[in-house]
Please model this.
Amino acid sequence: MVGTTRAFISVTVSVRLPTAAEYALAVDKEHRWLPMLAPRVPLRIPTPLAKGEPAEGFGFHWSVCEWIDGGPARLRRR
Model:
């Protein structure tokens, strides 16, 4: 929907906004490992879409990944 002063866009993503420096380390790990793991595991893995840099308003790296609908993965017992 587009109005005269704004546009509304429906976007479904996962955003990681770390609350401490040690949690921000996971952002680089996600961007490095998720694309490498995706073709090697039987479950769908979110694709990293963007990585934000620390700035005045937020002091840590942050991440945007594809959202995957569904519930927690469950281990099948034989």
Summary: The mean pLDDT is 85. Residues 1 and 9 are 7 Å apart (CA to CA). The beta strands are 13-16, 48-52, 62-66. The two ends are 50 Å apart (CA to CA).
